[in-house]
TrEMBL record:
Organism: Pseudonocardia alaniniphila
PANTHER family to which the protein is assigned, alphabetical: HEAT-SHOCK PROTEIN 20 FAMILY MEMBER
Lineage: superkingdom: Bacteria
Domain SHSP stretches: 25-137
Transmembrane segments: none
InterPro entries reported for this sequence: A-crystallin/Hsp20_dom, HSP20-like_chaperone, Small_HSP
Protein name in the entry: Hsp20/alpha crystallin family protein
One Pfam family here: HSP20
Protein family (similarity comment): Belongs to the small heat shock protein (HSP20) family.
Length: 146
């Protein structure tokens, strides 16, 4: 199944983001909220990425780790721009999910619509229930659900 991210890694990332800001300024850490649920024979994971263009999103799978990285540039840039209120996070967003052995990471389907990245991860065939045939010396055959 889907495993949650490592809380210590998230705490480390949060502290790095807070401490790496320019002296005298503070901005909220970049967040990538998500929902994850099982829908029949697949897991569905949805990430909120408002204002991110589809070509600014990267998905990488290495072993059982799925990494989602996205970048949202600042809206107002330029020599004469002076921000008055900056509550919307910008910059690079990153989130890692640890995928269990029961998920088929080779067949992940990704779609992006209205600022929501949706991943559909099928349950691996080896993890689905199956029947095993048992034969005995007296030639009776039985099927057992596993």
């Amino acid at each position: 199944m889907l495993m949650r991210t490592d809380p210590f890694r998230q705490l480390d990332r949060l502290s790095q983001q807070l401490l790496s800001n320019t002296p005298g300024t503070w901005s909220r850490p970049t967040a990538m909220p998500m929902d994850a649920y099982r829908d029949g024979e697949q897991f569905v994971v949805s990430f909120d990425l408002p204002g991110v263009k589809p070509d600014a999103i990267e998905l990488d799978v290495e072993r059982n780790v799925l990494t989602v990285t996205a970048e949202r540039p600042p809206v107002a840039t330029g020599e004469h721009v002076e921000m008055q209120v900056a509550e919307r996070p910008h910059g690079v967003f990153s989130r890692q999910l640890f995928l269990g052995d029961t998920l088929d990471a080779d067949r992940i389907d990704a779609s992006y619509d209205a600022g929501v990245l949706t991943l559909r991860i099928p349950i691996a065939e080896r993890a689905k229930p199956r029947k095993i045939t048992i034969t005995s010396a007296d030639t009776e055959t039985k099927q057992i659900n596993v």
